[in-house]
């Protein structure tokens, strides 16, 4: 499955995301992770992230921690921290992500592991 973009909708092999706001001070995304899928194990060098879990249940890797999450939970991902989201449920996991930092481009992703062969 290739990445596509239409009106801020971005399809990924694990689900999709929509950019809700992209400004100088922050970027906000609505991320959907399909059941049994997970994002790459990654880190960012120029931004931190705050995640609010709107729907579903999952497991977040944050550094050495494994943090169970469900709707209503929130979690901070510090600048440079390894992180990943895994959907453990039977329905989509929906997350609102707020990025803060000096740069919000998709090229600020260092992938250490990826189920889909991306680098």
Give an overview in words.
The structure is a single chain. By secondary structure, the protein is an all-beta fold. It has a single domain, classed as Sandwich (Jelly Rolls). The protein is 0% helix and 57% strand. It has strands at 4-6, 9-12, 15-22, 27-33, 41-43, 47-55, 57-62, 65-70, 74-77, 83-87, 93-101, 110-113. The strands form three sheets. Strands 1-2-3-4-11-6-9 form a seven-stranded antiparallel beta sheet, with no helix packed on it. The two termini are 15 Å apart. Residues 1-5 have low confidence and may be disordered.
Task: Give the DSSP E fraction (strand runs of 2 or more residues).
Answer: over 45%
SS content category: mainly beta
- Number of H- or I-type helical stretches: 0
CATH architecture: Sandwich
For the largest sheet, list the strands in their spatial order.
1-2-3-4-11-6-9
> Low-confidence runs (pLDDT<50, min 5 residues)?
1-5
What's the helical proportion of residues? Answer: under 10%
Secondary structure: number of strands: 12
CATH topology: Jelly Rolls
What's the CATH first level? Mainly Beta
**SSE order:** EEEEEEEEEEEE
Give the domain tally: 1
The radius of gyration is 13 Å
Q: How many strands, which pairing sense, and closed or not: the largest β-sheet?
A: 7 strands, antiparallel
- Quaternary state reads single chain
Mean pLDDT metric: 94
- Overall shape: globular
Q: Look at the structure and name the CATH superfamily.
A: Jelly Rolls
The separation of the N and C termini measures: 15 Å
